[in-house]
From TrEMBL:
Amino-acid positions noted as binding Zn(2+) in the UniProt annotation, renumbered to this chain: 286, 291, 293, 299
Xref: SUPFAM superfamilies: P-loop containing nucleoside triphosphate hydrolases
Domain spans labelled CP-type G: 107-262
Cofactor stoichiometry and binding remark: Binds 1 zinc ion per subunit.
Homology family: Belongs to the TRAFAC class YlqF/YawG GTPase family. RsgA subfamily.
GO molecular function per UniProt: GTP binding; GTPase activity; metal ion binding; rRNA binding
Sorted UniProt keywords: Cytoplasm, GTP-binding, Hydrolase, Metal-binding, Nucleotide-binding, Ribosome biogenesis, RNA-binding, rRNA-binding, Zinc
GO biological-process terms attached to the record: ribosomal small subunit biogenesis
EC number(s) given by UniProt: 3.6.1.-
Protein's recorded name: Small ribosomal subunit biogenesis GTPase RsgA
Positions contributing to GTP binding: 152-155, 204-212
Sequence ranges assigned to domain EngC GTPase in this UniProt record: 113-260
Length: 362
């Protein structure tokens, strides 16, 4: 596989050449094509290897942003035989998509690097929310890549055309495509935005149809590119990896369950987020990113209540809903083992009670 087909260009050649001279051992360039937590797979011109980040890079890196992420071009020291390669350096990025952590001193968490296009997918079914698209757009713009909005599940929405117009109005100059991964309608216009050698990332909350779309785009090549799915130690499918797929037309697309955990695009609490977007926006101004608005210093939400900008009753109903939701989430997360232990304890208690009452009778 040539580096050019993975998106390599003259700027990288240049950066790599000046970097290599600083290392005593031979290095080869490659691109991070798969990431599962800290485990990276790097594709070089000759092969794909697992790579470990060199200790020096780990310790010298000024902040998390300097560490390798999916889409990065890196300099590797290949192993003599089998085994892991050592990743010594990350080449300067042309763009970087990071989760924003408002009010925090820390760097944003990296999502992907060296993107030309960021596809923001939103479903045209029940949860359609232009506000969320707006927020996601600002994140995409700040990456340095160009956003393209994908309105999925168009087959479920007879009024798709007017919603496209609505989104176009809030995002002047941004292509807005309606498509259906189910019928295939509009899917080819997605590939048209990703010519050979260009890299895109697909972002969107769970259920908007990202996997279905990727399957459509990949066609038969999915079977080749899809590696064995990892399982964690409990045999569950892990949901954190990101992968760079080569589309039949030569475009490169980063996707994976890890691409949906973008706070801005909403998750399970998106109903609440939607309803109380004003509070969430205020909360971005809180000093602590995990502020509970319970009297922490620098709390922008409490400040808004104090100034009268946010009615106290509205904050109270938001907090009540959050508590209910947290309770539901805890209930849902009772694991079988925990459930077993509870039964175990109940049986033991019953045995003791029986023994005690027997003693009393004796
Ligand atoms: N009607 C319709 N349903 C679709 C379309 N695309 C996906 N779906 C359905 O929507 C559901 C979610 O699709 P996925 O492709 O798994 O969504 P996802 O965004 O990958 O979700 P995660 O894997 O949880 O991140 C599935 O039941 C799909 O069959 C579409 O274009 N039209
Ligand atoms: Zn606060």
């Amino acid at each position: 596989m040539s580096l050019e087909s993975l998106g390599w260009g003259p700027a990288f050649t240049h950066a790599f050449a000046s970097l290599v001279s600083q290392f005593p051992h031979p290095l080869v360039p490659g691109r991070v094509v798969r990431q599962q937590r800290g485990l990276l797979t790097v594709q070089t011109a000759s092969r794909a290897v697992l790579a470990r980040t060199a200790g020096r890079l780990l310790h010298q890196a000024p902040g998390a942003q300097a560490l390798p992420t999916i889409g990065d071009w890196v300099a590797l020291q290949l192993p003599d035989g089998e085994g892991e390669a050592l990743l010594h350096a990350v080449l300067p990025r042309t763009s970087v998509l990071a989760r924003r952590e408002a009010g925090s001193e820390r760097d944003g968490q990296l999502i992907a690097a060296n993107l030309d296009v960021v596809f923001l997918a939103a479903g045209l079914d029940g949860n359609f929310n232009p506000r969320r698209i707006e927020r996601a757009l600002s994140l995409a713009w700040s990456s340095g890549a160009s956003p393209v909005v994908l309105l999925t599940k168009a087959d479920l929405q007879p009024g798709a055309a007017s919603l496209v117009a609505e989104v176009e109005a809030l995002a002047p100059g941004v292509p807005v495509l309606a498509l259906s991964a189910r019928t295939g309608e509009g899917v080819e216009s997605v590939s048209a935005h990703l010519p050979a050698g260009k890299t895109g990332a697909l972002l969107g909350s769970s259920g908007v149809g990202k996997s279905t779309l990727v399957n459509r785009l990949l066609g038969d090549s999915r079977l080749v590119t899809q590696a064995v799915r990892e399982e964690d130690d409990k045999g569950r499918h892990t949901t954190t990896h990101r992968e760079l797929f080569v589309l039949p037309g030569g475009g490169l697309l980063i996707d994976g369950p890890g691409m949906r955990e973008l706070g801005l695009l909403g998750g399970e609490d998106e109903g609440i987020e939607q309803t109380f977007s004003d509070i969430l926006e205020l909360a971005e101004g809180c000093r602590f990113s995990d502020c509970q608005h319970q009297g922490e210093p620098g709390c922008a939400v409490r400040a808004a209540v104090a100034s009268g900008a946010l009615p106290e009753a509205r904050l109270a109903s938001y907090e009540r809903l959050r508590r209910e939701q947290a309770f539901q989430a805890r209930k849902a997360s009772v694991t079988p083992e925990r459930e077993n232990r509870r039964h175990e304890r109940a049986r033991t208690t019953m045995a003791w009670d029986a023994l005690r009452s027997k003693r009393r009778r004796d």
